[in-house]
Amino acid sequence: MAQSTFTLPKPRGDAAPYFSRNQVSKVLHQVGVLLELDGANVFRIRSYQNGSRTLGTMNQDLWELVQTKELINIKGIGKGLASAISEAMSTGLWPEDWVRLHEDTAPGLIEMLGIPGMGPKKIQRLNQEFGVESIAELKEVAEDGKIAPLSGFGAKSQQKILDGIELLARFRSRRRLDIGLMYGLAFESRISEIKNVKSATLAGSARRRKSTIGDLDIVVSAESEHHAQISKEVLSLPGIADVKGAGDSKISLILDTSLFMEEFTVGHIDKNVLDAIGGAEYEQLESGGTIDAQIRIVEPHVEPFTLAYFTGSKEHNIVMRQKAIEKGLTLSEWGLSPQDKIGDLKGEAAAKFSLPAVEESDIYKHLGMEYVEPELREDLGEISAAQSGLLPNLITLNQIKGSLHNHTTLSDGEASLEEMAHAARGMGWEWLGIADHSPTLKIANGASADDLLEQGAKIKRYNSEWEEQGVDFRLIHGVESDILAGGKLDHPDEVLEQLDYVVASVHAMTKWRARSEFENTEEMCKVIDHPSTTILGHPTGRILQGRDGYEIDLQAVLEHMADYNANGKLKAVELNASPYRLDLDWKFCKRAKDLGVPVIINPDAHSISGLNDIRFGVMNARKGWLESSDVLNSLDHNEIFEILAK
Ligand code: DGT
Ligand code: CA
Ligand code: ZN
Predict the structure, then answer these.
(1) Tell me, what's the pLDDT at 285?
(2) Three-state SS for 601?
């Protein structure tokens, strides 16, 4: 969390002004918080808060105000503050009491600021009452029920603290792919713009498109004489909350949301998902979030090896090294060298004898393999496939021609049918399936049968207009039917029969999560048996960083669906592309493919921008070995109508 990284900025350059207005404003804010944690006088705290706000929003040049001694006349900045600021900017030294506050405050108290709903005042009080100095200690007193009796707290607020601690822990360990990529690509592009940088590439789990990201790994290529300069410039980029270690070839950082050019906001989240992921406090967590980043700077001839190494996975690397050994070679992050030439030499020294590589594919070539796309590097059969030329030809975003699970204002979507269709056409799609919620799902404003059928009539009208005009675009009419008790679908059969397709989804999560795997699997198979069910929506109900799905034997469900497909009846499984879900998990994509169960990648869009989530679905599908022929999205509009009719 940004709040956990309270440090005083180091002076920049070797002449005044040593600090920027933003840095000073941030420090004043920090001092205000630290004073509050320390239980200081309210007026003193307020003077720092006001000072920080004033600097943050003013238009004048702060350094000029310091030089002309006019800072003192600015409303919101007291005498003492004005002189402390002037001193710091002129000398590069922060006032001693500020330094002491930063050094003396227990880091655990600062960490507690990251717990949703916890502010400095509450933390100070709890610290004073119980002597708690870490989140672990705070958790203990809350679990012992000691917070509830305190005046101003109560049982509810005690529970909220416990929930917040859990949320923070879950949130901190890993970040979702969309968030990881957002930080990773933004930082990658900032580094690429630094002078003398040949390339900067996001590696690690983000490049492999894992559903969640631990930390970011970025590999930078440049001639060695520029490494020191580049390292220095990386350290002065915006968005760095803290530096954990820095040299000419390795930098370890913590990034926060100030990295982004535009103000950080989270887009539309449907209510279901929001509840699972932390409710109203979620946005606070996300905008105060941080992510660790490791940067390596290497010479251009080494870069392909370093990139391959830091792309991983560790498991893939291990097998790659074994394959190298079988060929009398040693593979490392520095090179691929013949064992008989290197003798006892190791690492960088051994790599002097490396076979050449201009790009990663050369490494695979040297080892007698096809190039392995980063998404596949998980040691799940990709290496033997690469040796025998049997790697899949992975699906790409531009092969997507439509999707089948999207919402409009008829249920809980933000955009009308027309707006959604327009947006889909703008993305180059040939068709868009609309599947609004069914009546049972009240929180999602599920549509009545009458309204649903009216929507269908409208869609038919649009389609015939487009056909007449020769427009290559169609709307397809479905529903997202809630799965009801006993494996039944919402809406009477005669209504469902009038639709082009039905996405069957579980939303009664509490009930499904309380049940055994056996019961859930049975019920799911019953839903599949319903003649109207075409697509199984978000098959496990998981919300990444939010909640686990219900227990289910997904393999058994897929096998059940496979029987239908083998007999010419379409039963497709959804890969819900929302980055909060990515459900079907990539590991099951390959299983569906092997069983002959078609996959449909669905953004589950609740807004126009939600359609763009399709790209996360494609990433996940690629990671799961899917080719264009494995997904329904690659069909043209005639073909999709044809297959849905089965
Ligand atoms: P993450 O950060 O947990 O989401 O996952 P990764 O895959 O990004 O893992 P990370 O950041 O620990 O390391 C980046 C890559 O560096 C990893 O994918 C493979 C490589 N690597 C790291 N440690 C080792 C190791 O001990 N052995 C091998 N062979 N490779 C390693
Ligand atoms: Ca990583
Ligand atoms: Zn939906």
Answers:
(1) 79
(2) strand
Using a pLDDT cut of 90, give the percent of the chain over it. 84
Mean pLDDT to the nearest integer, 367-380: 98
Q: Which two tokens stand for residue 430?
A: 């040939």
Strands 175-176 and 572-576: unpaired
Rounded to 5 degrees, φ, ψ at 566 are: -65, -30
What is the CATH code of the structural domain delimited by 175-298? 3.30.460.10
Question: What b/e string do you get for 239-253 counting C-beta neighbours within 10 Å, with b at 16 or more?
Answer: bbbbeeeeeebebeb
Q: What share of the chain is helix, strand, coil (3-state, %, to 5)?
A: 50, 15, 35
Provide CATH code, domain 397-644. Answer: 3.20.20.140
Q: Which of 14-18, 89-93, 554-558 has the lowest mean pLDDT?
A: 14-18
pLDDT recorded at residue 463: 98
Question: Do 458 and 496 form a contact (C-beta atoms < 8 A)?
Answer: no
Residue to substitute in 177, 205, 219 for testing ligand 1 pocket (most ligand atoms within 8 angstroms of CB) = 205
> How close is the Cα of 513 to the center of ligand 2, in Å?
31
Ranges for all domains in the chain classified under CATH 3.30.460.10: 175-298
Question: Does residue 505 have a cis bond before it (omega within 30 degrees)?
Answer: no
Among the atoms of ligand 1, which is closest to the Cα of residue 321? 29
Nearest Cα neighbor of 475 from 269, 646, 644 is: 644
What pLDDT is stored for residue 117 in this prediction?
83
Joined together, the tokens standing for residue 518 give 């056996």
